[in-house]
Amino acid sequence: MKNEDIWKKYDMEVDSNTKSEIKKEIIIKYISLVKIISGRLYNYYASNIEYEDLMSYGVIGLIDAIDKFDRTKNIKFETYASIRIRGSIIDQIRNLDWVPRSIRQKSKVLKDAYEVLDQKLGREPSNAEIAEYLGKTESEIKSMFDETSIFNVMSIEDDFKDNYKIQLKDETIDSSPEASAIKNDTLKELQLAIEKLSERDKIIINLYYYEGLTYKEIGEILKISESRVSQIHSKAIVKMRNQFK
């Protein structure tokens, strides 16, 4: 059955049992998408979680996507589901709270150093300048950015939820007109923060978040190492967080 046909059948079905069976068909049809996204994220979380767990979290996101997908909007289900699946996996991992305290501390040290130097220099500080400020080598700073990369990604989402009371990948927590206005303003600020990034940073942000590529795949495109992509990505996130400070 073609994708369009199965969705029409699902939307029109009124019998709950039959609708449930059609839903199972849709899940089976798109389970490969869960496998792809789980596989990509497993590259980063392998030392902390099993691939099967990521798959189960992803299936939760897929089911949620099926329940909330609006076919009247001009968006492919694959695109919408990918966001839901990835978000579900990261949310579940965040709930496990497995990030070591040392990683949290390193992230804060980098963020604070970046903020001080940014204000002092009036521009983005280099790794060498951050290293000098913290009394470390440039190699140590690169390693710190590499180690804190995933935590920085999760913490910027937490910043938005805690400080702006919104979830960027979903509906507002508060659906009032005031909350919607705040979300729209914040999204505009986020867009401006991205526009202030260098062209290379923008490319990496776009490839990682919008195209769903891994660091390895991005590195192959940009002809740089996977570790270097991780460092640039982490620094870009720190930079964006500083814009919202």
UniProtKB/TrEMBL annotation:
It comes from the Bacteria. Pfam families: Sigma70_r2, Sigma70_r3, Sigma70_r4. Residues 53-66, 214-240 form the RNA polymerase sigma-70 domain. Keywords: Cell projection, Cilium, DNA-binding, Flagellum, Sigma factor, Transcription, Transcription regulation. CDD domains: Sigma70_r4. InterPro entries: RNA_pol_sigma-70_dom, RNA_pol_sigma70, RNA_pol_sigma70_r2, RNA_pol_sigma70_r3, RNA_pol_sigma70_r4, RNA_pol_sigma_FliA_WhiG, RNA_pol_sigma_r2, RNA_pol_sigma_r3/r4-like. The keyword Transcription applies. Gene3D superfamilies: 1.10.1740.10, 1.20.140.160. NCBIfam families: FliA_WhiG, PRK06986.1, sigma70-ECF. Sigma factors are initiation factors that promote the attachment of RNA polymerase to specific initiation sites and are then released. Belongs to the sigma-70 factor family. This is RNA polymerase sigma factor. It comes from Acetoanaerobium pronyense.
